[in-house]
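step: validate -> pass
step: tokenize input -> pass
step: predict -> running
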Amino acid sequence: MTATRDRARPAVTWTPPLDSEALSHLLTKIHAWEAYDGEALLDDVATVLDEVIPEEEHVEDLAERLRSHLQRLVHIAVAAETERDEQTARVIEQARAVRAKALPGDPRKAVGHLRRLGWTVNELMERLVATRCLKEAA
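step: predict -> pass
step: emit ->
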């Protein structure tokens, strides 16, 4: 028979790692998160870089989607610490700059801006493939 111990052990008080405000903020971020979709990215880039100019009614939506692609790619690059690579760092800065610019009201300038967004998305994706952060999308 084994002897039992009557001594009480003090329990360590557990404290949650985040308070309710921080958890709420984290939950909001999780709900807003969208997975990387390489096919959608390539479709959007092809649409804006094609010889056929996108219809004016689609320009704003395309610009928003390209900005989202850029943001997602920049997050991937920063998380993988690829900004240490000079070429990638240059493209990241270019992506941040073009993403921050507002879509011009003039239709011809808006198409030019769309094409700069598309070109930058494509260039950053290629850098991430070259640095093995992404597999080739297609």
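step: describe -> The CA atoms of residues 24 and 30 lie 10 Å apart.
step: cleanup -> pass
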